[in-house]
Amino acid sequence: MQKGLFITFEGSDGCGKTTQINLLNEYLRAKCRPTLLTREPGSGGLGIKIREILLNFEGEIAPNCESFLFLADRAQHVEYTIKPALKEGKIVLCDRHTDSTLAYQGYGREGDIERIKLLNEIAVNGLKPDLTLVFDIPAETSLKRVGHDKDRMEASGLEFFDRVRNGYLEIAKLEPERVRVIDASDSIENIHKKVVEIVESL
Ligand code: TYD
Q1: At how many degrees (to 10) do helices 113-124 and 63-77 cross?
Q2: Is any ligand 1 atom within 6 A of the Cβ of residue 70?
Q3: Which class is 5-200 in CATH?
Q4: How far apart are CA 168 and CA 13, in angstroms?
């Protein structure tokens, strides 16, 4: 079976990964490589509904409920979007995936990381990124970039974003083969060059 490539883009809110994922997508398409650009949470009809709850629900959401909702979105996304595209041999570029749940619900919300990993294994059903790019910025920059109009996750405060950032760096240390950290305070062009270099080396 021909298999594609699964690349995930990660980092704190405001790190610029969405700009970079779009640039990489254009670069790969210009080279006639088949890609699928997607994101979590919120790809597909059900995913969009789950995203709406996660980002805009105004009442309290229990930490476990928040984790389950992100994982429910992922389970649907993996089965109906990511796996079929990989099977077709596409390069799947995904804006956030498993490491977001570990960084945000695990490190950020100070949840039980081992338990989140186990639950996530059920959601991804054997799927793992071939490469993960973490766009690293200080928590202060993250909050400055998201500005005043914050969604539910973005309104979690400076200490939360500091834990999220450190969580990503910890994940990168634990899995240096898969996870590459990129300094996201550099210029858009320089970051894009680094991204291309890493992806081409795959
Ligand atoms: P989004 O607007 O997509 O943010 P960004 O452009 O930074 O990716 O909102 C997604 C939010 O959900 C973001 O704050 C990160 C958070 N998130 C989690 O907390 N856990 C997860 O598992 C995922 C996928 C996202």
Answers
A1: 30
A2: yes
A3: alpha beta
A4: 12
Which amino acid, one-letter code, is at 24?
A: L
Give the model confidence (pLDDT) of 76-125 as tens digits: 999 999 999 999 999 999 999 999 999 999 999 999 999 999 999 999 99
Q: Where are the domains of the chain?
A: 5-200
What's the N-to-C CA distance of the chain in angstroms? 19
Backbone angles phi, psi at 92, to 5 degrees: -95, 120
Ligand 1 neighbourhood includes 101 CB (under 6 angstroms): yes
Residue identifier of the C-alpha nearest atom 17 of ligand 1? 100
Give the residue ranges of the chain where pLDDT is below 50.
1-2
| Å from CA of 109 to ligand 1 middle | 13
Please tell me if the CB atom of residue 135 comes closer than 6 angstroms to any atom of ligand 1: no
